[in-house]
Structures are given as structure tokens and as C-alpha cells.
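Comment thread on ticket #2218

A.B. wrote:
> Attaching the input chain for the structure job we discussed in standup.
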Amino acid sequence: MYMKVVIRADASAAIGSGHVMRCLTLAGQLRKNQGAEVVFVMRELPGNLINLAEQEGFRVLVLPRAEENGNLQGYERWLTVPVEQDAAETLSALEQWAGQADRLVVDSYALDYRWESAMRPAVREIMVIDDLANRRHDCDILLDQNFYLDRDSRYQGLVPVHCRLLLGPEHALLREEFYEAKKHLRRRNGKIKNILVFYGGSDLTDETSKAVRALAAVHEEVAREIGRAAGDRQENFTVDVIVGQSNPRRDEVERLCGSYGFIAYHCQVRNMAEFMNRADLMLGAGGSTTWERLFLQLPALVTAIADNQVQGCHDCSQAGLIEYLGLAEDVTAEDLAAAVRKKLFAR
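C.D. wrote:
> Ran it. Output below, let me know if you need it in another format.
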């Protein structure tokens, strides 16, 4: 059935790329499977992914860039404008797209029932993508693809009684490339020949550089082991480092990676599933990438790079799904090196 779908999501150095990337996945599925016409509404923030959405063939209605507002608090600072202003500007932008939309998808920690209620006249149905469960929503569908031990009670009192809840990794938004990679899943034998590093599109705490330094130290240690060994019983490893175009330190990371012959640097790749399938171990963050790794059965050492990832990482660790190292500020390069060393020399 033909649908007209509006998606409201943003990317920036502060927000990261995850919200837009999973919305692009959903948009692609709606277009392919239901023939939906999808339009994005995105604000012109520093580090936005407007061009990427357009490259994927989607129309983008661009909200104007705003000056920094010191009165905004919490996640609302990500909007750069008050919620009421964002709602008014979104409605104005939608006037360019004639007719009422069948569905509005909103993926923003900064938006809640106030914004959603203001959208009601312009859309028939509202779908929210969330994982914080920290505010009220006026929506008809809510998707939270993450694993939480308390998932069945997380949204009690936060959504209308008629709201359809889609909770848990069985509803994870995975790009088509991951389903294709699953068909050709490589059997890993426990040897670590390639390590993948990816800490999200922005990586504001610069976990990538921390990981590169850790891996450089371990690589040197393995080289010494090989030099002492009789024959070539052990191989050293290679590393692929991936950053997003919204990473404010991407040039510095590229220079750092260029210092080591065994490390390859990549920016804003379109074939993440291929990199994951090739890797034997990954150093990465919590969040939506967790479900991509698990889907392709890729072992990982996971760091929470934001407070909102901590509970999910902890619950996944309790369930035996991931190896969780802790919050970024508590995980040092030495900790990463020790964890990688343990993996390398466990056999």
C-alpha cells in the first residue's frame, strides 16, 4: 500500500550519526517493501548528514541553522531551538509537501509529547524511535530495538494506552547489506587476524585514538613474540579503523593511523557489514552497532561512549551478549590493550 512518510531526525557532532543512520535504514525498507514516498526533515547543524540522505535518493526539507541558545537544557540543546519552535518550523516545512502524511517517524532524544501533539494535524500516525524511556510520548507506535532486562515495563505511563510497542532486538533496524552478509557469514576459528575499530559517527570522547594507541602497543608486543618464536607459528594482526564524517577529529585520527603500516583508515563507509564479516574482533561502542555485531556473530570489546548507553551495555553484559569494559572515561588505552592481549593469547 502506497504511503507518504515523514522522518524527523538529526545528526551533528554532538548528536552523532546513529539516529539518522537507523532512520535511513527504515526509510529504505519502507521504500523497497511498501513503495513508500519518504521525505526527511533535518536541521542544518554542524556535522549534519543531509547530503548522505540525499545521496540515498530521499528528499530533505532543511530546517534553518540557529545560533546557540544558552537557555536550552539537556537534550534540547541538540535541537539548538526550543521544542515549540522546532515544531512550528517542521510544520512550515511540511507545507512544501502537499497533503497529509500517512506516518511521521521521529527519532530525537530532544522531542517529546509536546512536539508530537503539535504534529497531529499534519499526519495520520506517529511513530517514535526511542531507547531512553525518560519522557512522555504522544504516539501510535514506539520502537525500542535495544535489549533491557526491564523492557516490558520501561514505557508504562509514558505512552498512550493504544500505542503499539515494538521492543527488543528482534525489531532491530538492520540495513540490507547485513542480511546479504549473513548469507555468506565467515566461520571464525578463534584466531585474530583482523581487528575492526568503530566507535560511532562522531566519537566525541575520541575512543578511536585510544584504541589505535592500545593496538599499536599490542601489535609491537606480538611482533616481539614472533621474533622470539621458532618458525612462524604466530601471525600478527591488521586493523581497520572507521570514523564518520561528523567526527571532529577525523583528520587527526587519519594522521595517527598513517603512522602504522598495519592500520587502514576509512571514513563514512557504505559497506560496514563487509568490514564486520572480515573482522575477528571489534572494538566499539554500545548502541545500534551492537545488533549489527551480534547479527554477524562478531566478538567485541564494548565501551559505553555516552551515559544513555550504560544500562543497555550492562544488561547485555549480564545476559552474556557482549564483553563490556565500562564507561569511556573509565576505560584507558592500557585497559583496552590488556583486553585485546587476553583475546590474542587465550589460545
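A.B. wrote:
> Thanks. Noting for the ticket: The chain has twelve helices and 13 strands.
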